[in-house]
Write the structure tokens for this entry.
Amino acid sequence: MNKTDVIIIGAGPVGLFAVHQLGIKGLKAVVIDNLDKAGGQCIELYPDKPIYDIPAIPECTGKELTNRLLEQIKPFKTKFYLNERVEEVKSKDDNWIVKTSNKNEFIAPNIIIAGGVGSFEPRKLSTQNTEKFEGKSIFYSVKSKEEFKNKNICVFGGGDSALDWTLELSKYSKITLIHRRDNFRGAPHTLNEIKKLQKDGKISIKTPFQLDRIEGDKKITAIIIKDDNGKKEKIPADIVLSFFGLVMKLGPIAEWGLNMDKKTITVNPNNFETNKKGIFAAGDICSYPGKLKLILSGFHEVALASVECFKRARPNEKYRFEFTTSSKTIQDRLGKK
Amino acid sequence: MPKITYKDVRGNSKTIEVDNGLTVMEGAIQNDVSGIDADCGGSMACATCHVYVEEKWLDKIPKAEEGEIDMVDMAFEPKKNSRLSCQIIVTDELNGLIVTTPEKQS
């Protein structure tokens, strides 16, 4: 079991800045996120879109903001647990124990939930029967290419993931790429390669088609696709690969006994504590009168929460408010000499 | 104030007066219309405010920009009349607009 001062759930901008606010107060934290990288919505939904309302930064993209925050918290050498979802939270004396989907366990007096709208998960196919084939014939990502060799593979989607995997897997399998409209969204170079493969008869492209039905008992044998006018076509298939982006699911957070308002956690706006002592919520996932879902609001929220975290983690020490410009202690913690 | 009608696939319907300048998504969220999630808060990044626009209104709404069309690809069961409701801005011309929410958003 890993012992720390604060367990931060969510590696979005607010979770990252929480590391900073805790770090300058001398508190250690770990960060857990279901994505494979830090940045949350900023990195997953709009890495290249400009943001104009970060104080003193007239313009920066989601990716730039993430990188700057990571740079800012470098001195604290925080450990990140990525590709992991927090499954369970339970209390033990004055501490909280957190268990993740990767069977990691943490204990700390404080938890900061900076989980945005929930954890990112692949958007699943909605056709009947898809669940029983999931992980056997239906996949939402490619973990090992071995499973995808010498097969009939139907790839759904019109974006980068669908195109890139079509190119890669066409080297060893028969690929049918299916998309609901004629246009694909991808890098020009990728689109050219796709066109070339189609021209050479190496891959088959079906547009504008969507999945109608799946045939097969234990394994998929064929799929039926249909167009907007109801015209159907049957394609032999062993594997369906679906790339319709990610959705955000609140997941187990709803079961931790926290007071909720729709999909948000209600907090005390003095310290952003939830109804459970030592569990805080900040950023898009928290709600209180006048709440604005802005990154800058989240920064403020974790700054205040970090003070309460200090009091719980260091009950025998007195909290002293300090400025980074003048505090020798903070400057030491930041590695400034 | 323009009236917007939100229907769902089960035939339930709710008509709401929405201020000019708000989006059809905001009209739904502010008035607790179920069936629209709007996870990303209107930044055209999640496709969970997807609606089907009644055919006769399609031409009256400014055409979808490329980013919206790309996002609709990700939506649950998109059709020709699919739009993201966060990109439909309410004006007097849209008084009487009818949109239907899909069976689910994700």
Q: What stands out?
A: The beta strands of chain B are 3-7, 13-17, 50-53, 82-84, 98-100. The mean pLDDT of chain B is 94.
